[in-house]
Amino acid sequence: MTSRVARHEAGAGRPGAAGQTARMRRASWFWVAASVVGVLGGVANYLLATREAAAGEAVEIGAAALVGAVLGLGCWVVLAVVWLALQIPLRGGHGWARVSLGLTAVLGVGLDVISLVGSWPTIVAAVVQLVLLGAALVLTFRPSPG
Q1: Please, what is the Cα angle at 50 between 45 and 53, to 5 degrees?
Q2: 9-62, pLDDT tens digit by residue?
Q3: Rounded distance, CA 62 to CA 52, Å?
Q4: 24, 49, 134, 135: which is deepest, by most CB within 10 A?
Q5: Quick one: DSSP state of residue 144?
Q6: Would you say 34 and 136 are in contact if contact means Cβ atoms under 8 Å apart?
Q7: How many CA atoms lie within 13 A of 87 on its CB side?
Q8: Residue 134: exposed, middle, or buried by beta-carbon count in 10 A (0-12, 13-18, 19+)?
Q9: What is the value of pTM for the model shown?
């Protein structure tokens, strides 16, 4: 009975199971990288907004930029925690983790589009993250060969 469970967990009898596990591991690393880039972009946006608020030329604009940066950083942290928490089920081959990652990626793309109107560090982070999210989504949802 134990060997039967071990064979099932290893994916024995399913064509392409080993290849799918390796692909999910690669996809997982893209999700981790997208999480890190998102948080770093949020931190860069926060630091730039802090500098703008400290300049004090237009107090209302600086305060609004700071509030927006704090909210954006909070969103990136929440998304990063969700993406990182879903990596173990993703590597385990759970379909619900793939769907959850795909749905939350839409939020990440939305935040990236908003970041495209920012300063150059946030634009660079947004473009890099869009590429990472695209690669992660392709690897996550590409059908297994065979």
Answers
A1: 125
A2: 444 445 455 667 788 888 999 999 999 999 999 998 888 888 877 776 666 667
A3: 5
A4: 49
A5: P
A6: yes
A7: 18
A8: middle
A9: 0.78
